[in-house]
Amino acid sequence: MPEVTREAHKDGDFFVNYEEKVFEDVKADAGEKALVTFHTVAFEGSIGLVNILNAIRLNRKGYETSILLYGPGVTLGIQRGFPTLGDEAFPGHQNFAVNLKKFMAEGGKVYACRFALQALYGHGEPSLLPGIVPIAPQDVLDCILLHKKADAVILDTWTV
Its domain of life (predicted)? Predict the structure, then answer.
């Protein structure tokens, strides 16, 4: 059996050069928009949280940024908690709420499809995090089209 002669890793060590940036730091020009869409289920993978973080970054880069929650994506925007709403039942339980609230506090807009909210997931508008705007199912396509016409950066997130 080969002998391991390297010292064990410890807190503070790093494995990669995290300071080197290959691409220029792009900032939005005045009036540029971005849209991040979510058709993904909360807690079913990392993409929900990752793209909320991307939306925060786009907003901070100066893009007028919106998040569109539709289909199972509305599950990212509902209030949750246990034993009461807002309580964190396990570490990370409130990641979606915390980051969506941060995004909205920094000027981002969040929209949620009313059809998915009620027909698919049995929730009403009062279930949404404060600040999320409920929209008609017909608005989902128009939201995307308006951003497309504005030549916005669009990140579509689909999981099945």
Answer: Bacteria
Contact 154, 34 (CB under 8 A): yes
Give the largest Cα separation in the chain, rounded: 65
Instruction: Tell me the C-alpha to C-alpha distance, in Å, between residue 154 and each of 68, 109, 148.
Output: 11, 14, 8
- Say what the pLDDT of residue 160 is: 65
For 131: left if phi > 0, alpha if psi spans -120 to 50, otherwise beta; the answer is left
Strands 109-113 and 153-158: unpaired
Cβ(155)–Cβ(33) under 8 Å? no
| Among candidate residues 48, 33, 30, 31, the one with its CA nearest the CA of residue 109 | 33
**pLDDT (tens digit per residue) in 97-127:** 999 999 999 999 999 999 999 999 999 999 9
Q: Using CA atoms, how far apart are residues 104 and 128, in angstroms rounded to an integer? A: 13
All domains of the chain, ordered by start, with CATH? 33-158 (3.40.1260.10)
Q: Can you tell me the distance from the alpha carbon of 48 to that of 43, in angstroms, rounded to the nearest whole number?
A: 8
Structure tokens at 128: 């949404």
Euclidean distance between CA atoms 152 and 32, whole angstroms:
6
